[in-house]
Amino acid sequence: MEECLPWLCQGDIFRSVPVLTPRVLSDASVIAVSVEVGPALLVTHGCALDKANQGVPRIERLNFLPLLAVEASRPDRQSLLRRGKLQPFEAFYLGDTPEIGESYCVLSEIYALPASYFQPIMQSFEAHPQAPDDAQDYLMATKNDSRIGRLIESGLALLLDKFNAYWTRRLPEGRDAD
Hints:
Layout: E1 12-25, E2 30-42, H1 46-49, E3 52-53, E4 56-57, E5 61-66, E6 68-69, H2 75-82, E7 91-97, E8 101-106, E9 111-114, E10 120-124, E11 137-141, E12 147-150, H3 153-168
Antiparallel strand pairs: 1-2, 1-12, 2-5, 3-4, 5-9, 6-8, 7-8, 10-11
């Protein structure tokens, strides 16, 4: 895990955001959604985060994956997750995350929050050592920003490969299914 950048990035880890969980009630004919506060991974692509219209963010929703405790899963699943490989495609292992513990997420549990929850603004970070040279403005949360870190580059690359493999069933070029 790396330190957060001042702007929002795909792969940012939030300590506490609203997490939407569908629940099947009684006879399975009624479905409700519960909202709890918990840890989540921001998975909205960077190019979608940084689009603006006359200095105003264009993004309306941010996509998240809730973080789940590895210890709550079956022992055989735990060892599979800890491998940190492309398979299983649907699950992404984050490892031991400060303040959260050993965690993973399931790609099929993606949900969206209104961007307005974070009261985003566009801001320039030209002087920041990790700012790209394109001199564009980046999306910054001014409210409810509970980020504690972000995925390292290799972790983000694996997550993107998993998204591709899970949703399209196409393996990244040059990669085996593990």
